[in-house]
Design goal:
single chain; about 70 residues; 2 domains; rod-shaped
């Protein structure tokens, strides 16, 4: 019976350590500054893709053309 108690106590201690480690990781991941930085990096990476970059340039040119036509009329 003593061995079972010792085994259970070791399992509880291991579970506590795993929980503490998980909470530490969640604290790091949920840091607002880190989330913002990760989002910024993802956005910048997306904007570097040629399809996105040229699509935005095309949309900007279209908006500029519409504005110029509205001003001329």
């Amino acid at each position: 019976m003593a061995r079972d108690t010792e085994r259970i106590e070791r399992e509880i201690e291991r579970a506590r350590e795993e929980l503490a480690s998980t909470l530490d990781e969640l604290t790091v991941r949920a840091n607002p500054k880190r989330v913002l930085d990760d989002g910024k990096q993802a956005l910048l990476a997306k904007l570097q893709q040629p399809q996105v970059r040229y699509g935005l340039i095309g949309a900007g040119l279209l908006v500029a053309a519409i504005v110029v036509v509205k001003i001329i009329r």
